[in-house]
Amino acid sequence: MKKQLALASAILGLAVSFGAPVVSNAAYQLNEEVKDPTPALKEASTIGVRTHETKELQNLQNKDAIVVMSFGTTYKETRAKTIDATVAAIQAAHPNTKVVTAFTSHIIRDRIQQKEGITYPTPEEALAQLKSEGYSRVALTSLDVIPGMEYNYDVAVYNLYKNNFKKMTLGTPLMYWMGQEGQTDEVIQTIKAVQSQFPKVGKEDAVLIMLMVLQILQMLTIL
Predict the structure, then answer these.
(1) Which of 120, 196, 198, 213 is the most exposed place for a label (fewest CB within 10 A)?
(2) Which residue in 221, 10, 8 sits closest to 99, CA to CA?
């Protein structure tokens, strides 16, 4: 289930970058009545799937890569069943495209390197390496569940590095909805997807999903 949910979020970012059919128009649209938006309003409206093309680099040959960004985990078995399995599925779906795993938690990266001798790059390090290897089109995809601090990190990476490549896209986290007509309500879709995992309850019982718990569980993987 975790693998399937994470992969659904990942594929959205890939579809926008490399021409596959886009299954969701996950991008905010300013109201047509706004004729002269200010720079601040334009910046505020850039939520959802982001796409950038650098005009000066359009003559470069297409060489594609995917950077899968995750908070990471120090639990080896958990990492294999979730993050590694998702990255493997993405690679299988794009056999001719380089796929790189990057962790946004610097603490987790350091602890994995110390305990296992494995070095995962930060998103910044991954992009710098891809640039040096001549990759020109990069899809950034996030395995984050909600648009919290870690996803803001992803957005910052996108904004800082987008002009270094011919084309760059950034997908959304799993549960992401702007509340506009015509947009897919990914929060409701996610809840429906995990309903099969809910325990049986009586007529006077209920199941409460707390998103903050997801963030806390991520943080606990550092320990």
Answers:
(1) 196
(2) 10
